[in-house]
Amino acid sequence: MTLREADRVERELVAIVGEANVLRPAPEAYAIDDRRPSLVVFPETSEEIAAVLRLAHARELAVVPMGSGRRLSFGNLLERVDILLSTRRMTRILEYEPADLTASVEAGCTLMAFNRVALPHRQWLPFDPPDADRATLGGIAAVDDFGPLRHGYGRPRDAVIGLEVVQADGTRIRAGGRVVKNVTGYDLNKLFVGSFGTLGVLVRVNFKLRPYPEAEATTLFFDSEWERLESGARQILQSELLPAALMLVNEEAMSALLPDHPRKALLARFLETAPAVVYQMERAKALARSLSLELVELKDEASRSIWEKLGRLHRLLPTDLRLRLSVLPAHTVEALCAGERALDETLARLHILAQPGTGIVHIGGELTSAEERTLSSVVQAIHHLRRTWAAHRGRVIVEHAPPEIKRRVDVWGDVGASLPLMRALKHAFDPKRILSPGRFVAGL
Description:
The chain folds into four domains: 3-86, Uridine Diphospho-n-acetylenolpyruvylglucosamine Reductase, domain 2 (2-Layer Sandwich); 93-211, Uridine Diphospho-n-acetylenolpyruvylglucosamine Reductase, domain 3; 215-283; 318-417, Alpha-Beta Plaits (2-Layer Sandwich). Helix content is 34%, strand content 24%. It contains 15 helices and 19 strands. The longest helix is centred in the last third of the chain and has 19 residues, at 372-390.
């Protein structure tokens, strides 16, 4: 965008949202990888977002939607970013029906703010993505962002029952509804949830809620070998126990979570009625005795605290690179060990979080250097892991990496036969490639 064009666009944006809600030049804090937007705009209504997108569409300007900004670097390098569109001012809870366990919120409403309103009714949205303390509900839906509670509660996409979306040309559409039993027409919710702002801008999200648990506790099993902890996880999964979250954690991660216990661990979180939690904790003790595992119990606030720290782990430990391996649950520990071997020489303070119930393995750490040799080794390790696990129906996604690595590898990997359909959808919804161009699979 030339200086004259930027001046003209700035004037038109000011006419839409007001002078106080347009930033130019964009501060460095709004840079995405090595791309810095020309302008940042803060609309307050869906009508203003539609007007901004009509302007961008007419001038073929690239627009990147943003919630809190905590996941902006998730994805391939953007081809360009002219306007960064923030939903920061769209924070209202539009409807909340405790009797129906449903709610409708604007995209900029934060998870914490909504749950503060719902908790007095003993209800909540059981989401715990990374940086949950800053996450917006629109951002969670746009990324389909999840954490350990996916084990017991599913992904955010399972809780979304309706959306309002502004398309690339400024057209406003609605999908789904505001009640749980809504089965009319195509399920466009699943199309937009997890599309990373490449098909439309989410402005309103309708959710189904869950009852808030009466009690909570966490059992931590410790051992020096993954195999024994894997056996414990397998026995839990095959038993009548119903943990809301189940996580394998390596020594480096545990040193940040519980400095007095820097050992390999299996964490099981129980969220239930008080008697059910007591029963499951007793069963967990019996399991620990049978496997000769060291056991630590955390209850109530101590239990909540360790899982909140786990969601902020990348802020507690230096994290230049973070990979997500998705494998069959039975292969979780094998994938964990393979990732550790592949990256051990290139990552310092390597930390691992693995969910044996879902087969999700996160591996992160600090690059040992910024030299070409290290960067090449990381890229080779990513390719090696992808080749290895593709044969076992697994995937490797790069959730976070320096631009120097993103230039050499597609962060999403090969999506196989679904790519032509994804390209057709992008062309149908955004033929001018206005929305987050290049961010998604294969540069969509």
